[in-house]
Every structure is written in C-alpha cells, then in structure tokens.
Design goal:
The structure is a single chain. The protein has 147 residues and is mainly alpha-helical. The protein is 57% helix and 0% strand. The protein is built from 7 helices and no strands. The N and C termini lie far apart (57 Å).
Length: 147
C-alpha cells in the first residue's frame, strides 16, 4: 500500500511539476505584465493595456490582485488554476469575463489608487464604496478603448 501511495504521489508531483514548468509557472510569480499573456488568450487585453491611460502607472497585479503579500499570491494561485483549466479544456467564455471575486478586488484597488477623487464621490452619493462598480463606467481605463 505504501508503495502504491508513493507511486501515485510521485506521479502527481511529477505531472504537476512538469506542467508548471511547461506552462512557465514561475513567470506568474513576477510582476511582469508579459506573464499575463503567456497563454495567448490574453493578447488582446495586454495590447489594449499598452494603449491605456494606466500603462505608465500600473501593471496587471496593481489592479487585479490584492496588494498584501499572502492575499496576492493566493489570488494568483486561484486565478492560475482557473486560467489553466479554462485554457486546457477550452471552456472559458468569449469574450473573457471577470469573475465576481476579481471584480471586487479590481474595484477595491481602483478605490485605493483614486482615494482622493472617490472619497468625494462616495461622500456626495452617501453610499459605501462596495456599492460602486468602477468598471461599469470606466471599462476602457485599464485596457484602453474596446475594439
């Protein structure tokens, strides 16, 4: 039984490790926006980010991941799993849509970077920040004009 468990565990680690290396997994641990387009499906998002107003001041991680070290890498791991699954099984939506958890992270990061402006807007409307959906109106801000 121990031998069978060792073989299965070794196979799992070997398969996972080779998949991680083949998929350039270490690149996703960086802050380099090039890593986000490794799987080619994100080429349009990367190209539009290059033309956006945020290109000079923000990378993918600045907007799409929490800023704390552990939450950032937990989010990267979760997104990496779902992105890998979607790309491997070809079952992702076209056009790509942001998941609710990632939308909340994105909105939070918008609010953090634009605190001075948003604080005034929130005060005028008398609502909690969580009720605002930045990308509903500012869809082209991070990724430039839609095609």
């Amino acid at each position: 039984m121990a031998l069978l468990i060792a073989i299965l565990l070794g196979g799992l680690v070997g398969l996972g490790g080779s998949t991680f290396l083949y998929g350039e997994g270490f690149a996703y641990l960086s802050n380099d926006p090039q890593a986000c387009k490794n799987c080619h499906i994100m080429n349009d998002q990367y190209d539009s980010w290059l033309k956006s107003s945020h290109h000079a001041v923000a990378t993918c991680n600045d907007c799409h991941t929490p800023h704390g070290l552990i939450p950032k890498y937990l989010t990267k791991a979760e997104n990496g799993f779902w992105h890998s699954k979607g790309f491997t099984l070809q079952d992702f939506p076209e056009p790509i849509r942001i998941r609710p958890h990632n939308r909340r992270t994105l909105n939070h990061n918008c609010m953090e970077c634009h605190r001075e402006l948003v604080g005034e807007v929130v005060a005028v409307h008398g609502r909690d920040e969580s009720q605002f959906d930045c990308i509903r109106c500012h869809v082209a801000s991070g990724h430039g004009p839609a095609r």
